[in-house]
Amino acid sequence: MSYARVFAVGLLGVTGHIVEVEADLSQGLPVVTLTGLPDTALHEARDRVRAAVVNSGQSWPNRRITVNLLPAALPKHGSGFDLAIATALLAGAGELPVEALDKVVVLGELGLDGQVRAVRGVLPMVAAAVRAGLTEVIVPLANAREAAVVPGVTVRAVDSLRRLIAYVRGQDELLEPPPHEPGPPPAGPDLADVAGQEMGRYGLEVAAAGGHHLAMFGAPGAGKTMLAERLPSILPELDDEAALEVTALQSIAGVLPPDGQLLRRPPYQAPHHTASAAAIVGGGSGLARPGAMSLAHRGVLFLDEAAEFLSATLQALRQPLETGRVRLARSQGTTEFPAQVQLVLASNPCPCASPAGDQHCTCPRVVRRRYLAKLSGPLLDRIDIRLTLAPLTAAQLTVSSAPSPSSAEVGARVAAARAAAGARWAADGWRVNAGVPGQVLRRPPWRLPASDTAVLRESLDKGLLSARGYDRVLRLAWTIADLDGRTRPTRAEVNEAIQLRMGDRNG
Ligand SMILES: [Zn+2]
């Protein structure tokens, strides 16, 4: 036997594709040829595999070796094919019984010493294997728990090529994935910790219930960050599909915690304002890494001091916010990652950022206006809720005796409101009010009576509100009605929505 085939998986964005690793050994000059669009890392694989095979006590077959990765058209990145290449090669050389690997997917990077190293993206790779009907996988020990998260798969773990060889020869067992210790996920920060800021907490609740983007303006210390980091705590848990998707993205980014649990809480990402556009949307050579926007997929992306971000970075958010996907141009084509985020912006009202608020601001008016103008083009247009938070006074901190409602209490109201909205829009495919086109809300059967929208129309006529802003108020009014348990918004909900929309005194 001088031919063997082993399965591996290549990733395109977050989607895995089965790759057949073929090895053919023939008489001729002892050279190794790799074909099938390999990138630089794959060429390096040739050297790693040779050293690993020799250092695992095997003799290197002194024949002409061709390794081919199929399908050829699929771009293949990274070092995760090493183990499959070594296995196919040894099987082709007659050192391993090929039949034992007939329906097995083999993933892992090899060290020169023959140790098997972890690779990024094992979770989506294993998911792809299962989808293709290959339900047995051999993965690096460090990735074993992560692989076992995928339903319907048998995971075997290896720490070295030597162990894999012994297993395939029937001389040794592979390792079982370390047992799961599914404790409760660590409790995140709770809304009960936020004193005062009724408007801020309410705005957050409405944002969560309707899926609305949110902007908060206010002096340092007003609690903008405290509120933003508590938004995930009142959002519903991720369903199975979303949880797999979110966990897969963390796996590809290499930031998945080693306990190998499916992530059920909506993620939270808060990139610093000095972060590059690539850090936010993703990039890197070889196997592209998702950026903060994709790591926040199905969760919250918080931009603190938003006006301090580079304009180019803010511009880079625009397309993903529109489409829910990040597209990265690569030398071998385009990589896409999902990036449906709920955006939360916070900003000081002006560059001087006086902690005492507006009274002590020393900035000229034109500077104040210019400061926030940077946000208005790419981002503020898409944001439904704009709040101005006043700094907490000592009186508010001490007098406020009743504790703030907890995240669990608020989260229950959010869940009920989302259920109402979900039922209303189910036939049209929208999950939350923020996704409903404005024209739908302006037409029967959802159009509100003129008597209820009087103030809204007046604001539009006076130029206080744009046509887009008008639609945003309508969406907010529906969310407020959902939270109030009403089947339709009335004048009261519309007026409250105007407040949430125009709470930004800076425009
Ligand atoms: Zn100022």
From TrEMBL:
| Sequence segments annotated as region (Disordered) | 172-194
* GO function term, MF aspect, one: ATP binding
- Its signal peptide is none
Question: Compositional bias of type Pro residues: which residue ranges?
Answer: 176-188
Gene3D superfamilies listed in its UniProt record = 3.30.230.10, P-loop containing nucleotide triphosphate hydrolases (3.40.50.300)
Recorded hits in InterPro entries, A to Z, give:
AAA+_ATPase (IPR003593), CHLI-like (IPR045006), Mg_chelat-rel (IPR004482), Mg_chelat-rel_C (IPR025158), Mg_chelatse_chII-like_cat_dom (IPR000523), P-loop_NTPase (IPR027417), Ribosomal_Su5_D2-typ_SF (IPR020568), Ribsml_uS5_D2-typ_fold_subgr (IPR014721)
Q: What is this protein called?
A: Magnesium chelatase family protein
- Pfam families associated with the record: ChlI, Mg_chelatase, Mg_chelatase_C
Q: What are the residue boundaries of the AAA+ ATPase domain, all occurrences included?
A: 210-393
Similarity-based family: Belongs to the Mg-chelatase subunits D/I family. ComM subfamily.
